[in-house]
Amino acid sequence: MSLTSAATLATLDRTGPRRITDLAAVEGVTQPAMTALVRVMEESGLVERRGDASDKRVTLVCLTEAGASYVRTRHQAGVHAYERLIGELSGDEIEALAAALPALKHLAELESQDREGPKR
Fold it and tell me: SS3 for 117?
């Protein structure tokens, strides 16, 4: 799976259903590229398109259960990888990492706000 596909699934997991144009902007790709990506992910059963109850002209891209499961599995694999790597650090390195956690959390929040852009 491409990084853009994985990032798009993660965005849908975090923010809920989105328009293709919104996803394209968040992921930094063109609308035609996102349309093609969504089509492939739809054929794979990871996403589906649904109408927007508040605007019948709009189609939203939504995660399927298979898509949500993929995101959870990928996240858990990342957690396990970091657990293993942190286990190889010295005590001083673990303390330094713990001291940096507030700044890293803030950085992640800033990145998330930047990627999500305006919500619809």
Answer: coil
